[in-house]
Amino acid sequence: MICSTWINRFYSFVLIISSTVIFVQSDVPRPRGVSLSKASLYSPTKDFTCFDGTVTIPFSYVNDDYCDCFDGSDEPGTSACLNGVFHCTNAGHRAQNIPSSRVNDGVCDCCDGTDEYAFPNICSNICEELGREARAEAQRLAEIHKAGSHVRLELIEKGNKRRNEMAEQLSQLESDKAEAEKIKSEKEVLKNELESKENEALKVYRDAEEKERQLKAEEEKEKLVKEATEHFIRFDANSDAILTIDEIKVVNAFDKDKDGQVDEEETKYFFGENESVDQDTFISITWPLLKPLLMMEQGMFRPAQAEGEVDQDIEAVDPKEDHDAEDLGIEDDSLDIDLPQDDHEEQEVEQEQHKTYDDDTQKLVDDATEARRQLTDAERTVREIESNIRNIKENLEKDYGLLQEWATLDGQCLEYEDKEYIYKLCLFQKVTQKSKNGGSEVSLGSWGEWAGSDNKYSAMKYTNGMGCWNGPNRMTIVNINCGLETKLLSVTEPFRCEYKIELETPAACDDSNATQNQSSHDEL
Ligand code: MAN
């Protein structure tokens, strides 16, 4: 908080006089909490200007435990500014910047203990010891890096070899494709030629069949008219060639819902808006509606229904009770309807499939069949080649690192088990999770992209996995570090359905990374 009250400032000055004293460290005098690199910004001979340039204050206000600068830069050595930064030199180990709110809070944050200067006895300087451990760890990592980078070189070599092989395969496949397409066109020409001869020969048979079919249809029609006429005559009680509503009311066949009477709705159904129908209208409109009902009554025809579904209406009809027949005084079989015979129909289909032709026609059919088969084969060959080309192109377009170091790892699957699940990462392909209690594999994502922030090759993203119940699709981030072997170190789920995998591999033992890592130890 910025406070310019002089009285307050005075009290504060008295209380924390020790923190304002400029002390000497590494031979460069600078206020407490200031790093070597920023020392020149704090000159005791000049007024101090806040880093954000908004305020200039007498140098004596620096570290006076009053926050004068909005950016907290005037209080690097006290906890007066909420956004201040305290720098510990940590000689012997890594220098560190901590939020200045932690200064003199009774907790040792800096290994040299300088953040707790108000309590000289609570922190001891453990920087030498930590530095030693850190250097040993750095050394260990450097050795892993060195050994790993040799393996990486091999991966690079293999990756490039694989890439070259694929490029060669691709050009071979392109020429195979051209050849296969040529064969396909030849087969197509041959097929068309033989098919037109076949069609010509079969036309004779088809025409004859068509004629037969027409004859049959006419016969059927005649039969239907005969059948309808017979029924019309039977229902037309007064034989005046007109069927009236009164006449059909006494015929149970028209009792569609089988409730014992032919009501208005039913007469409307069979007669439309008419009060009566003549024979022609009966044949064309009434009979097609009535016939299926009569067939159903006789158990010859059942309407389409779902499997297992019981048709209550039909079941309710007692097949022994033929009301129409009784009412009309006719024998049961007098209402018999000529139904299509299933067996007969099947027989016809059979004959259709195994037609016999004369020898010449049969030869033409066989030749055309063979030509069709050859064309199908040729088309399949082209499709297979195209699919191989697509796969190779997809691989060639994949980003396997700047030097192809990841190329041979494509498809390599690695597993990790925790208490509950077995996780599998197939590099550049997919991530899955399988419960140890059984059940099927759950997709945690398919290869998406490189996703590291500074170095994009330091993380991978697998996306679009199985939908999370009431949430997004599962996805996985794979963090990559240098290691002598390619293996998974851990799998966690930091957020529901978002997984994090730690992967170690020599492919990541890049010398340029090693240099980067070293530079962050400069202040050791
Ligand atoms: C499964 C697993 C878990 C996940 C839950 C979400 O149990 O895939 O990892 O958190 O589903 O419902």
Automatic annotation (TrEMBL):
Keywords: Coiled coil, Disulfide bond, Endoplasmic reticulum, Membrane, Signal, Transmembrane, Transmembrane helix
Keyword tRNA-binding: no
Domain (MRH): residue spans on this chain: 411-511
Ranges for domain EF-hand: 249-277
Biological source species: Chilo suppressalis (Asiatic rice borer moth)
Name listed for the protein in its UniProt record: Glucosidase 2 subunit beta
InterPro entries (UniProt xref): EF-hand-dom_pair, EF_hand_dom, Gtb1-like, LDL_receptor-like_sf, Man6P_isomerase_rcpt-bd_dom_sf, MRH_dom, PRKCSH, PRKCSH_N
Transmembrane domains' residue ranges: 6-24
Coiled-coil regions listed in the entry: 156-228, 361-395
Signal sequence range: none
